[in-house]
Structures are given as C-alpha cells and as structure tokens.
Amino acid sequence: MRNKSYWLLLLILLGACSPSEEELFDEGVRLMEASQYQKAIEYFDRVVEQNPQNTSAYNAKGVALFQQAKYDEAIEAFSSSIEIDPNSYKPYFNRGNAHLEKKSFKEALLDYNMANGLDPSQGDIYYNRGLALLGLEEYEDAIFDFDVVLQSNPNHALAQFNKAKAQLGNNDPVAAIESLQRTVSLDNRNGAAFYLLGVTQMSAFGQKEEGCQNLKTALGLGFSEAKSWIDDFCQN
Hints:
By secondary structure, the protein is mainly α. It has 14 helices and no strands. Helix 2 (21-33) packs antiparallel against helix 3 (37-50), helix 7 runs antiparallel to helix 8 (123-135) and helix 13 packs antiparallel against helix 14. The radius of gyration is 25 Å and the shape is elongated.
C-alpha cells in the first residue's frame, strides 16, 4: 500500500513540475525579447505540442523566424496561425512583412489588405502597404497610404521620404521636392534623402548650387552614390 502511495505521489509531483501552456509561451516571449530567437522557437514548438490550436504560438514562432531572416519558414508559421484563426490582423500583417522582405510585393499587398480589413486603425499597415505599392509602381495608391500615416504622425520622416519617391515615380517633382525638404528637416541624418533632393533639384529644376550642396551633405553622411554626381557636375 505504501509503495502504491509513493508512485501516486511521484506522478502528482511530475505533473506539477511540467510547465503549463501559458508558462511555455511566456518563456518563449521572454527569450524572444532577449533576442534568443532559436531558443524561443523551441518553447513555441512545445506550446504547439500541448495545444496544436494555439494560434498565438504559431504567430510568435513566425516572428522569431522573421527576426532570423528565415522568411519562408516564417511565412509557413504565419499561415498556420491564419488557418487556425483567420480573424486576427496580426499574422496577416506579419506574413505581409515577410513577403515584403522577399520583394514579393503582390503577396505582401494581399496580406496587408486583409490585415487592414480586419483592423483599419493600425497605422503600420498603411505604411508597409505603401512600401509594397511603391514596389509595384502603383504610385498614387502608395501616396494615399503614406498620407494616411502622415495625417496621424506628421513627423514620420520615412513616410515623408517614401512619399517623395512615389511622387517622383508619379512624375511630380514639385511635390517630391517639398516632401524631401520635409524629410531632411525631420531627419538630418538621412543621406539617401539629401541625395535624392540634390539630384531632383539639379535634374528637374537646374538648381545646381542647391543640388550640389545637398549632394555633398549626402556624401558626408556616407551615401557614396552622391560622389559620381559631385565629380561630374559640382566641380568648379
């Protein structure tokens, strides 16, 4: 009888020592926040072993894979999350980001549209969808999305910069110059913006002095592509 009680107690203790689904997930999140992505994935996999319907674990695993630039594996994890719960915007948004990194702009756009439909209040969706539209050369739609971002955050320097690129693609250098000037006033370390501003000033408006000054600023900030323009057009 004592032996039977001993084994029963041992089984209870072993069960008590096994981490719960929630504890495993929380530890995975903690490891991911500490940039220990591979270890985090191991914990998310253990969550899924306990509960194959845990959509958050698949989504979190996808984020950890994304952080390691394992985009195809991340897409697979996000897709699993979507199959379980197609009503959350997060895995669509995250999968769109993975497609964006792969320059699969059409696939990214589809995911961002789904994410936007599920939660249109998320500003990051508009910005990233703008990048996908820019990649697809759908400039007017890209400008619209960047404008949505800028309406809620006028100091979003990258939205201003990418809006300028879309405006140039849309053959509107006047508006692009304005956006680029706003960009560099918000972020005076953006060498690419100074470069694009200088090139546009010189090529579209013949503003050599202003253009050369901005090109030299771009070069000083480490944007090496400015050097050929400076050598060709800015030598006295």
